[in-house]
Specification:
About 25% of the residues lie in helices and about 15% in strands. The protein has about 210 residues and is of the alpha+beta class. The strands form three sheets. The chain has a four-stranded antiparallel beta sheet with strand order 1-4-7-8, with no helix packed on it. The protein has a two-stranded antiparallel ribbon with strand order 2-3.
């Protein structure tokens, strides 16, 4: 009856299987020891049993078959116990492979560091109000006070995510001009810096994509 009580996983019934194996072994040993072996014919050696005595080999075979059956059952139940969590565990991937899909950056955004550049030499070592350079809300609107949302100074490093080439043209103090603008994340907000206000060699930053319209 104990065989009928085995659970599906088998983990909690392995001790019962071992106990059954011990009982079967003890019963087989008791049965074999209770039989009186036939007298050994004269001249026979201990290497071979008498021709008519099959009790010991038969008992040994029965014990072997029983032991193999019990161990085989235990192996099957243990394998089932290991398989059930694998079949019923969580699956985080859409294709059932268990591997989460790779994360891809948002379209039209990247990541690059750009450095603010002020062409006025006197302002390259001062952080005064007169030396501040303006950041804009919209690169397509006139670059004036109503469009200013922040300020930076020469040497500041900004985190740019994309760029546009057709913004409002901005002219600096020595006559240089550019319609390139860079969208930046600054102080937790989205702002724009004119390309003419960053280091010249960074204007053609190939690591940055065009900003989505």
């Amino acid at each position: 009856m104990q065989w009928c009580k085995l659970s599906f996983t088998g983990e909690d019934r392995l001790p019962a299987l071992v106990e059954l194996l011990h009982r079967a072994q003890a019963a087989a040993d008791a049965g074999a020891s209770g039989m009186t072996p036939s007298p050994e014919p004269e001249g026979a050696t201990g290497a071979e049993p008498p021709a008519g005595d099959t009790t010991a080999p038969a008992a040994g075979r029965r014990r072997l078959r029983l032991a193999l059956a019990v161990l085989g059952t235990a192996a099957v139940l243990t394998a089932a116990a290991l398989a059930v969590p694998a079949l019923t565990g969580p699956d985080d991937s859409p294709d059932g492979s268990g591997t989460p899909p790779p994360q891809t950056p948002a379209r039209g955004t990247g990541s690059a560091l750009i450095t603010v550049h002020n062409v006025e030499r006197d302002c390259q070592h001062q952080r005064t109000e007169n030396c501040a350079l303006s950041l804009a809300r919209d690169p397509y609107r006139v670059y004036r006070r109503s469009n200013v949302v922040g300020h930076v100074w020469h040497g500041d490093v900004l985190h740019a995510v994309c760029r546009v080439a057709n913004g409002v043209t901005v002219t600096d103090e020595v006559g240089g001009h550019s319609s390139m603008w860079f969208r930046i994340d600054h102080e937790g907000k989205q702002m724009w810096v004119p390309g003419i206000r960053i280091r010249p060699e960074q204007l053609e930053n190939t690591a940055l994509p065009s900003c989505p319209e």
